[in-house]
Amino acid sequence: MKKLAGILTLAAALVGCTHTQVLVKDSSDERLTCMEIATQTAEAKGVLRDIDDKTGFSGRNVAMGIFFWPGIIVNQMNAGDARKAATERLAVLADLAKQKNCQ
């Protein structure tokens, strides 16, 4: 019984780990400086790299496959949502950089 409880706890922890969520647009976007736009662009690209590291044939998905296979599906769905938001954020930041003539 303790072993089953341990496995269920681990499975819940693995499924509970979600990808970083990115806000696509912010009310303060128009006030961003070129340096802040560059910083946020780097952060959004980092989120995309992080998503790539945690999806597909990753250690995270292998562990979920062993202990709680539905977690793989949840992980992939969350990754798709997070990837879409990060990509849309990059487009917003690129537009802002263009409007502000950032280098």
Topology diagram in text:
Layout lengths: L1 H15 L17 H21 L4 H9 L2 H30 L4
Helix pairs in contact: 1-3, 2-4, 3-4
Task: Give a brief description.
It is built from four helices and no strands.
Beta-strand percentage range: under 5%
For the secondary structure, the number of strands is: 0
Rg calc: 18 Å
Mean pLDDT: 78
Share of helix, binned: over 70%
Domain module count = 1
Number of helices: 4
Biggest beta sheet attributes: none
What does this structure look like?
The protein has 4 helices and no strands. The protein is mostly helical. The chain has one domain (2-17, 32-99). Helix 1 (2-16) packs antiparallel against helix 3 (59-67) and helix 3 runs antiparallel to helix 4. The longest helix is centred in the last third of the chain and has 30 residues, at 70-99. The radius of gyration is 18 Å and the shape is elongated. The termini are far apart.
